[in-house]
Amino acid sequence: MEKRLKDPSAEVVITCLEDRLLKNEVMLNYHCFVRILSGGLKVVLADNSMTFGPGDTILFPRRQLSTIIQYPMNELPYKCLLIILKDDRIKDYYSRHKVDKNAVHSVSVHYFEQHPLLESFFNSLLPYFDMQGKLPESLLGLKIDEAITILRILDKDADALLGNLSEPDKIDLAGFMEQNYIFNMPIAKFSYLTGRSLPTFKRDFKKLYGMPPQRWLTEKRLKLAHYLLAEKQKKPVEVFREAGFENLSHFSYAFKRRYGYAPTEFRSVI
Predict the structure, then answer these.
(1) Average pLDDT of each block of 10 consecutive residues along the chain (270 residues)?
(2) The pTM is what?
(3) Could you tell me if residue 215 is inside a domain?
(4) Domain boundaries, position 181
(5) In the chain, at which residue ranges do the beta strands (DSSP E only) sit?
(6) Which of 210, 224, 211 is nearest to 179 (CA)?
(7) Which of 33, 37, 92, 143 is the most buried (most CB within 10 A)?
């Protein structure tokens, strides 16, 4: 166990961002069980956003696309306790426990109300961070089992989410892209999440839209940026991330190439 995410193999960690804001677009490889200790967290999904604070507990499903904004609050840095539920741990757990076949599958960030089981569990973990070295494997396994058991007690549909470790099936390409184009990630990630190999994704995309995926993504993001500048009267520095661009300079270059003027000149030409 470590105080920061320095060890990629760690499964129970405390991460602290000191006194800075961090914004990232993420797609987790594993389910993550999170308790916020201080600071604030905003999660932006394709169709809504949620804000969390100290004492809140959240389950982030794997393969959930989201924008994560972590920030200081009340003069304290963002700090959270993170339980990473790796596939082999979950498989081992369900080899010893019966899956509820009536559970309803829903892939979404899940917020948990305060509960004695949660308070007891997370409080029991904190003293371990004063240890030298890693938590013994036998004890780590018990704490992961405890986390999964608590999730199943508090959420009757947890089995449908946790127990589904299959790869993505081939899904509707247009529906997925229209909902998730704002997330800035490699084309290979889009292909994976739609259940396609990269060559198949590119072929299906060209057949559907008549252009390569990167060109389509840029066009969609520029149209969104133009809307945010025109209708929401936002500033370019606010718009570029919200529209899915990696940095301001790339956004400004693409915008000027598309519309003939820089986003900073928007007010003077309308």
Answers:
(1) 48 79 81 95 86 96 87 92 94 92 80 96 91 83 96 93 81 91 90 92 95 95 92 87 86 92 73
(2) 0.77
(3) yes
(4) 173-269
(5) 12-16, 22-26, 31-38, 40-44, 49-52, 57-60, 66-71, 79-85, 110-112
(6) 224
(7) 33
